[in-house]
């Protein structure tokens, strides 16, 4: 019996996902979501020009070190909140609610960081106006993308991270 327990423990240990795979998965998800949305927002702010790629990359890197880590923490907190306070709600509906909330929150943060990157903070009226236009123009795209991710990729990423 002790030998069987040892074999079972070994098999469980072998199926654990390495931390490096977990980190790469999270980075890949952040790149997909943040890169796509900051690209759309940069296009909304500036249009397409010869400097588009540099402006997008700068906006993406700014969002990577500010908005995205906060978003990852917030998504984890919202998931725990939904599990605790909405336990009877179907997991798919929990993910839809989390996806919509994250779309609104992340959209606002990404729009702010992208707008600051693209136009600066010298004129706060222009900053607010451009931020608002960016949020409203990119919101349908972000909501669709967040819902798609929440229903397809997020459950798989959560399972991977728990393993």
Overview in brief:
This protein is mainly alpha-helical. It is 88% helix and 0% strand.
What this model shows, in words?
The protein has helices at residues 2-15, 19-46, 52-65, 67-85, 91-119, 124-162. It is globular, with a radius of gyration of 19 Å. Helix 2 (19-46) crosses helix 5 and helix 3 (52-65) packs across helix 5. Helices cover 88% and strands 0% of the residues. It contains 6 helices and no strands. The relative contact order is 0.14. It has one domain (18-162). With 163 residues, the protein is mostly helical. The mean pLDDT is 84.
Q: Which descriptors would you attach to this protein?
A:
163 residues; 88% helix; 6 helices
The tally of helices reads 6
Number of strands: 0
- The mean pLDDT is 84
Query: In one word, what is the shape?
Result: globular
Order of helices and strands: HHHHHH
